[in-house]
Fold each of these.
Amino acid sequence: MQESATRIGIGDFAHACGVTPRTIRFYEERGLLPSQDRKERMNRSYSADLVKRVERIQQLQSLLGWSLEDIRQVLVLEDQVATLRQQYYQTDSLQDRYHVLQEAIDLTTEQLQRVNQRMKGLVKLQKDLEDKLAFYQTLRDDKKFSSARDGAEQ
Amino acid sequence: MQESATRIGIGDFAHACGVTPRTIRFYEERGLLPSQDRKERMNRSYSADLVKRVERIQQLQSLLGWSLEDIRQVLVLEDQVATLRQQYYQTDSLQDRYHVLQEAIDLTTEQLQRVNQRMKGLVKLQKDLEDKLAFYQTLRDDKKFSSARDGAEQ
DNA sequence: TACATATTTAACGTGTACGTAAAATCCGAA
DNA sequence: TTCGGATTTTACGTACACGTTAAATATGTA
């Protein structure tokens, strides 16, 4: 029964998220952030815990290269599960609960697969780069090059 | 002294790369693929080993989320080093060789840092997803839910 | 209550990475 | 040599993820 926690304006909120207000409104427009029911032209306000949600959006965007629509679908399902968790035993349809959970599991599994695929690619790329780096360094420190470098130093 | 190896048209080449001819021309236009010196309206032709280059472009694009301009800079430097490797001991300026190598090393190091950063993020995301998945599965397989599920099964 | 500053909606603009269409031209097989 | 499909250049179009501007309105402070 707490009074509404400290809520901040879109400027401070966006700054806390490391984005611009435009981005926040854009996310709301695309259904990634909850659209508040505010009276005509009333200003938006945010609780600080929503920052995590924006950070998660950026995470999925930069790390997995997903579109905002992809991300929205993930968030929607996560929200459903969160709701389910709150209403734990009071939910009307038990079948619905089960199905939402199953959907969440399927989606999360798919996400994990994508993550693992990326991981594989990244590991390969990492190895390639390390090999390349070692090769360059070998060339650089090669005696024939060292002598050249000596010549280059003054 | 081999005669020019089997060269293929842009259609087959693009297909081998898993992209469209438009993409190939676009990459050439942006300096990611060598612009061939062909007479007026002569058709482009490609040797199959160039496929690797396009695959590398896609790799950096999808795994690191780099822009084509970023990728171009990397490729240009790699090309310089490759050239250097060919001319190994016949290069005019030894200082130039050293500087190109040093640039390549710096750039590769920077790439590695970016890769490692992404890797960290991915590992974190992976862990989050695994935890989430386990949580969902626990909820689903919870006895209170199992009984609900039993009710749902006809 | 006056005022400075922040926020609002609406609309158009931007950069990236291509897609698509059209008309001319090229190239290889018959 | 002729013909049909592939390729050429040119140019406009598109999807995404915001940026920018402008005019009106809201909000916090003196």
Amino acid sequence: MHFKSNVCYNKNMPKVINHDEVRGKLLSQCLNLFSHEGYGSLTMRKIAKALNVSTGTLYHYFDSKEDLFRQLVEYITHQDLFDVEKALQGADTFSERVDALLRFFIDREDYFLNQVIIWMDYTRQQGEGTEAEPGPREALVQYEQGIIRLLGIEKEVARFILAAINGLVIQRYIDGGRTSLATQSILIRQYLLGQEEQGSL
Amino acid sequence: MHFKSNVCYNKNMPKVINHDEVRGKLLSQCLNLFSHEGYGSLTMRKIAKALNVSTGTLYHYFDSKEDLFRQLVEYITHQDLFDVEKALQGADTFSERVDALLRFFIDREDYFLNQVIIWMDYTRQQGEGTEAEPGPREALVQYEQGIIRLLGIEKEVARFILAAINGLVIQRYIDGGRTSLATQSILIRQYLLGQEEQGSL
Amino acid sequence: MHFKSNVCYNKNMPKVINHDEVRGKLLSQCLNLFSHEGYGSLTMRKIAKALNVSTGTLYHYFDSKEDLFRQLVEYITHQDLFDVEKALQGADTFSERVDALLRFFIDREDYFLNQVIIWMDYTRQQGEGTEAEPGPREALVQYEQGIIRLLGIEKEVARFILAAINGLVIQRYIDGGRTSLATQSILIRQYLLGQEEQGSL
Amino acid sequence: MHFKSNVCYNKNMPKVINHDEVRGKLLSQCLNLFSHEGYGSLTMRKIAKALNVSTGTLYHYFDSKEDLFRQLVEYITHQDLFDVEKALQGADTFSERVDALLRFFIDREDYFLNQVIIWMDYTRQQGEGTEAEPGPREALVQYEQGIIRLLGIEKEVARFILAAINGLVIQRYIDGGRTSLATQSILIRQYLLGQEEQGSL
DNA sequence: CATGAATGAGTATTCATTCAT
DNA sequence: GATGAATGAATACTCATTCAT
């Protein structure tokens, strides 16, 4: 995307590589893999092959398969923060902002589905034992607050909208796309406009 | 492939084993296992140990791990048909029927979550290649029609409600139960009652 | 060696195998392997191939490579207890008993060398951390006491004799057999007979 | 194989690096590593980390892990030649020289043990195939002749003494130091003094 | 000279599956 | 029908080694 020089000279002239940059580049290619195969079924060899590197290289950048997965979750979770805000711009009326929101999700349906699938795998992975790492939970809150800021609605309503969108995406995944996003969007739209009329926001 | 008698008579006639019955009993114990571990991470040995049988026995009743999983999906998919109808009984007014529906899902949240998780794993498993087996898709339609029959609402609205419930359950899974089912139920309730008033059903 | 029936019938007629017996049979073939290759260089695949079984079978009987090694140490350590006593029989005079002892070690030089090598690898394996498992230490004491009982000499003298024999075997290992066991035996013999004359036993 | 200058002049003349010197410095730090981990279990990365250099540097000075090990054996084998002679000085009577010898080994027990362990690993490494390189065999002969020169005893007796000391060190390794070096030294001392009295040297 | 990123064959271990009993 | 011993391909991960910088 943006230009970044890879060249630098240190005293003994070893091969110069920006570790974190490479790591990020690798992570960015992993979302689809994990989402399509599932944590348990995706092998390090498959990943290596898909990323055109050796397994050794994978382990050079990540401690383990689990570590790679965790970093992926963190990566995609943070990635969104910028994007969500974009939906805010250039929409004046409430109706326009609702449209912007729906469009945001419709345009990114695939990415959003992958994200939810990863989150579910991640949640499963942790088991009930670990309560520690927030990860996806945080991301959900981010989405929620983005919706609240955009539409100026109550937290519980925003959460409901998010759940509905989540559910739609998943339903389309399961039923092979038979659910119509266009039609369902209209329903969500009507609901939100109705809420505004009632002043119950 | 080959013919297999379901009834077996020992010389002493006491022990009659019904192949399908045993199979069903085994399947019924697998939902949690697959849902908690994921298809890729669950091993036949874990299953065998959890069901208190040997792996040999597992392979006596199922051709492969994949076959077992498919049969499980079929099993849980058909299992619901009976249950859904129960929600219909003893609810006269529209409001009561809405309550019955919400209660149905809230009471069975765990089961419903497991079911959705399995469906997602199943969908993933099949890949884009196989278009053949409907499975979960059918089940979703069943739920949809159950809701239509119960509430007398339009198909797209029923689908929306289902998606919202789906989404809620998953959101609660991901955020560790932070989303309140009670509060969200009220929103769904308000939405449905509002729809009825408008006569837009 | 001795006859042992493998046949038995349990209620469901599964394949009947004496787990421990097979395990022992496998262990008995591992001494040379570990001794010749060294713990770190010997692979499970090499072991499996040498024992004519699959790696899976190896792991059916042993938890890990380390577990296999530990059990091997225990196995060879206990194996000796019977053999040491044999050297006692049919030797009346002190001189005869000394000869019996020397002959015992000379005849079993290879086995004894392997044993010492394994013990050293085992000691190294444990690191300084674990003080727990006696293993080889016990075996050394057994040898010591066997020598004491046989020759009626003091503990420290017995220990000295054992050390000398240990050292000889290792020296022959390192120098490719250039040290003569016959000549050295005479020295040990002279030393022991000298000790007896002095009555310093 | 190819010629390699040991001296290197940078353009600014300050940094003169002697290839062999650096190599020796590296080797001198490897004895403990190989002895504690064992050839098969010690990795080039562990070595590099322990020596505070990169693996690349290691391969700059040594062709391979095996080459490094061989050079280490050669290094420690030659290192001793000087030290052994030190034990000779300032000991006039036979008794004093015996004490000097015993003290020599007792003071250097750890180093001597490491050395024997390395020799055994080296012997194992070569397998029966290679008869070529003498290495440790030579070193044993050196020790032997040093003892002969020091005490003026017969070759086979010197060899016996060496074997006993070897055996003692190893026995202490295996039994965790339970064997007393002091007590055992007295036995060796008595034996040697007895030999002298008999004039059987 | 020195570095450490990259490689891919190799390591310990696991897994779905088979089959003799 | 039921068992669990046996298999060997596959898995996560490591290692000696190379090489661009």
